[in-house]
Every structure is written in structure tokens, then in C-alpha cells.
Sequence to fold (190 residues):
Amino acid sequence: MGNNVSAAKPKVGGAIYVAPAGTSLPTDATTALANTFKALGYISEEGLVNSNEMSSTDIKAWGGDEVLNIDQGRSDSFKYTLIEALNVEVLKQVYGSANVTGTALSSGVTVKAKAALELPEQVVVAEMVLKGGILKRIVIPAGKVTAVGDVTYSDTNAIGYETTLKAFPDSSGFTHYEYIKEPSTSGSPT
Fold:
């Protein structure tokens, strides 16, 4: 009953990691990420949402009969809310690396919000644990933040940056990869 049904929890230590474009991509669910990947920490309880939008055009003949459907492509995007408002890597993700100076709160961090901001493409990895400890890793070879939602400062909720990430095709035409593997019996890598 429901052996293939699962839910997802973030992997211990974080769920979303980013690295500069061109970083070597992981090709499985378990190999440790290179040091170039930076953790974006906790995301909100809504988790990670992947939207796949397919579009097509219907061609009709005279008289109204549909005679052809032309595929116009597919859009692949991800949405998550970053809630570690004091994480310098999160601030760089939202405002751009060039607009965040300082590396530690003890010595001070400055954020400059810019009206015209184009964030670079980057490698993005999401790691999660499914039912039974099964590991899942989503690898986005060319992801770009295309929208950040409203930021609310209140005493009843965590400050969060609702982030929309567009996944662009890599040189093979794929927008993201998913790797799934049962845990090792000699110890859990989580």
C-alpha cells in the first residue's frame, strides 16, 4: 500500500545550495558537494515548488476543426522562501554579490538595493530526504533568480525572501536533473 508514495524533508544542514555558473555538476544523489557550493540555509515550511508549464498552439481548419497542435516549449521554474535573513549568502542571492559587502555580522554587512538588477545564472542544487531515508538531489545547471517577493518585517513571522528561480537549458537541452538513491546500509550520509 503506497510503497511509491513519499513526502520530502530538507536534508540535514540545508536544502538549497548555489555555486557560480560553470561549476562541475553533481551526477548522483550522494556524492558530497564541492566547497564552491554555498548553503542558503533554512527555507520556509512551504518547501520547494517546481512549476512546469507547457505551452502549445492549436491550428484549426476552415470550419473550426482542430487539425494540428504545435508544441511551443516548456518553462521550468522553482520557488522557495529563504528565511535566514542574517545569512550573507542569502543576501547575495537576493541583492547580488556585488551589492553585499562584509562577511560577518560582528564586523558589519552592508546591502545596497538596486533598482535595475540582473542576477547571474548559477548552479543550484536542492537536497532532500524522502520516505525511508531515500535521498533526492535536484541539480539545476543554469538557474537564475527572476523574482523576489515582498519582504515583510514583523514580530510574528520570520523575515523571508520568496524567490523564483528560472531553470534554463544546459548544452544538452535539459533544465534540471533529478537523482534518487536509497541510503547506504553502512551508515547514512544525511
In short: The first strand starts at residue 9 and ends at 10.
